[in-house]
Amino acid sequence: VAVLDCTIRDGGYVNSWRFDKRMVHEVYRSLSKSGVDYVEIGFRGTEKYFDPAVYGRWRFSSEDDLRNVVEGIEGAKISIMGDYGKIEIEDFIDKKESIVDLVRIAVNRDKVMEAVSFLEKVKDKGYKTSLQAIGFTAYTDREKQELKRAVQSSNMDYFYIADSYGSILPNEIPSIFESFLDIAPIKTGFHPHNSLQTAFANTMEAMKIGVDIVDGSIFGMGRGSGNLPTEILIAYLQKNGSSKYNVIPILSCIERYFVDMQKETPWGYQLPYFISGMFKCHPYYASELVKRREYPIEDIWKALEIVEELEPVGFDIKILEDLIRNGFVGSRISKKTKEE
What is the number of other CB atoms lying within 10 angstroms of the CB of residue 80? Predict the structure, then answer.
């Protein structure tokens, strides 16, 4: 199995992609020494969609910045990601002038065909390409069939299923991947999230059934509950006989940078992400309700039951506002709250 580390890209949600260049250099160096195949150094985006005053440099990942942080290191291949609809083909120079090897495009289920067409243009520029199917657990059977046909008829290199809401359980992995394991030469990938603390178990199941590439991030850094810690995966592969991997450089990097960073801007197991994982929906539904500090947890649980039935694409604030306005949230105020 190949390993892709997305610390700087996915971990950027924690600090708005404001990583120090020296730190990114050290992250790339340690991951390369550990045997990781790809390092995803941020998102590619433009000022048309993202304000540089709000977002750090790794939300844009310019060629100059990328060259700067990998200079002098022979190591892992470079990956970057784009959100479909917030990126344009003009954001990519020809591969022969770039140090980027792999371009991954994340897409919701309502824009799959457009994203596949976009990836073909990226492929024409010489890059390896990957489609990241966000919120896969919300796909209908018909949407899954359409997705597979779209992928098979394309020239992409990788197709990824993302456990966007951290809602997948290990026993579900075989049925989720079964219809996508026969799409050779396209390789399959898995991007886990740790909302239910199952990222490692899910990844082991994915590797067991033949998924080609899996994602992790150092110290599990990522939005909310975070991701599969790369060091756990690398240590597991190393302990199980793979001479390719060595976890020590990553552990040294954690000791140097990530322990303090987690204290300053915490990530890890969180109640809203657990609840949203249980109901297979975007974590913002739960986190917004928890943040308002108005509703007992039983009402939040009930609200997410309704959100799951509605099967929304991503996060829709209107759905949340309708739930509140119609009394699905806050309708059963506890006795204690009334007395206060």
Answer: 26
Question: HSE-up of 197 (CA within 13 Å, CB side)?
Answer: 4
C-alpha distances out from residue 242 to 117, 189, 239, 311, Å: 38, 20, 7, 41
Determine contact, residues 59/12, Cβ cutoff 8 Å. Answer: yes
- Residue 72's contacts (CB-CB under 8 Å, 6 or more residues apart) are none
The pTM of the full predicted model, rounded to 2 decimals, is 0.90
pLDDT, tens digit only, all 340 positions of the chain: 999 999 999 999 999 999 999 999 999 999 999 999 999 999 998 889 999 999 999 999 999 999 999 999 999 999 999 999 999 999 999 999 999 999 999 999 999 999 999 999 999 999 999 999 998 988 999 999 999 999 999 999 999 999 998 999 999 999 999 999 999 999 999 999 999 999 999 999 999 999 999 999 999 999 889 999 999 999 999 999 889 999 999 999 999 999 999 999 999 998 888 999 999 998 889 989 988 878 888 889 989 999 998 888 889 999 998 888 887 776 543 333 333 3
Angle at 28 between CA 22 and CA 30, to 5 degrees: 100
CA-CA-CA-CA dihedral for 172, 231, 106, 47, to nearest 10? 160
Residue 326 identity = N
The SS3 call for residue 48 is: coil
Cα–chain-centroid distance for residue 261? 20
Question: Which segments of the chain does DSSP mark as H helices, in order?
Answer: 7-10, 12-15, 21-34, 63-70, 112-124, 141-152, 173-177, 199-209, 230-239, 248-253, 259-264, 271-278, 283-292, 297-310, 317-325, 335-339
